[in-house]
Amino acid sequence: MKATYLIPLVLLGMWNCKQQDKKSTPGPISIEVEKPRKQSQEMESISQYLGISLSDSVDIESQFHCWTIDENENVANVDVSNAINLFKKISKTGKSDVYPIFGTKTGKEVLVIMSNQGFGGNIRGAFLIDKSSLEIKKVEFDHVAESEGYGAAITLSTFESQFEGTKVNFSTNTYGLKQNGKIIIPGSKLVDGISGATITSRLTVEMINDNLKKYKVFFE
């Protein structure tokens, strides 16, 4: 065979080899990785309160120990999902016949939730309490429609901090209220009401005293 015919045949063979190599070379492998589940805002808030780490490698729900208490002061164990749903309901409506209690498997502190009708709408409180000493370690308030510059000031740390460091008193009012130099509500510890917001201040303190007494059966 003449050389002029050999060259095209050799080139054709080389091209076929390249095409076979391309077909046999595997493409990139796609691996579907499950994304870590994002915790709800309520779960994140409660976890921070109780000092639970939100690491993706930790099963957050397994860290909780939750209860409920109803209007008849019956206490029951519940899973964290049911407790969170109750928390969401209270956050949305400010009302519930059953209230959740959040704790941890090993911790000595629990978070209790309370609500009441305020001057402009629902007001809510979250109290972190030491189960052994009954000391109130941390307090946060929230509201729906209290007036800015007046009742809305229940969310300020200057007001919230007055309730911290106090021991719960189940036999009488844990807190009393002093407004404009007058004692509006008698109690173990007097707190100063918000200037210009007597009604919101009174309703907040009444909410706390009434609800703390309901938790007596749980703590004792």
Structural description of this entry:
The chain is of the alpha+beta class and 220 residues long. It has helices at 3-24, 41-50, 80-93, 157-160, 198-214, 216-219, and strands at 64-70, 75-78, 98-104, 109-117, 122-130, 136-143, 175-179, 182-185, 189-192. The protein has one domain. Strands 2-1-3-4-5-6 form a 6-stranded antiparallel sheet, with helices on both faces. The model is unreliable at 5-12 and 29-36 (pLDDT under 50).
Helices and strands, with pairings:
Blueprint: H1 3-24, H2 41-50, E1 64-70, E2 75-78, H3 80-93, E3 98-104, E4 109-117, E5 122-130, E6 136-143, H4 157-160, E7 175-179, E8 182-185, E9 189-192, H5 198-214, H6 216-219
Pfam families: FMN_bind
InterPro entries: FMN-bd
Biased composition (Basic and acidic residues): 32-41
Features:
three-stranded mixed β-sheet; six-stranded antiparallel β-sheet; 26% strand; alpha+beta; 220 residues; FMN-bd; 9 strands; FMN-binding protein
The residue ranges in which pLDDT falls below 50 over 5 or more consecutive positions are 5-12, 29-36
What is the count of distinct domains? 1
**How many E-type strands?**
9
User: Helix and strand succession?
Assistant: HHEEHEEEEHEEEHH
The rounded Rg comes to 31 Å
Which class do the helix and strand fractions yield? alpha+beta
* Number of H/I helices: 6
User: In whole angstroms, how far apart are the ends?
Assistant: 106 Å
Name the average pLDDT.
81
Portion of residues in beta strands equals 25-35%
What is the share of helical residues? Answer: 25-40%
Physical arrangement of strands within the biggest beta sheet:
2-1-3-4-5-6
Assembly type of the chains comes to single chain
Q: Which overall shape is indicated by the principal axes computed on the Cα atoms?
A: globular
Largest sheet descriptor? 6 strands, antiparallel
InterPro entries: FMN-bd
Domain FMN-binding: 118-215
Region (Disordered): 20-42
Pfam family, one: FMN_bind
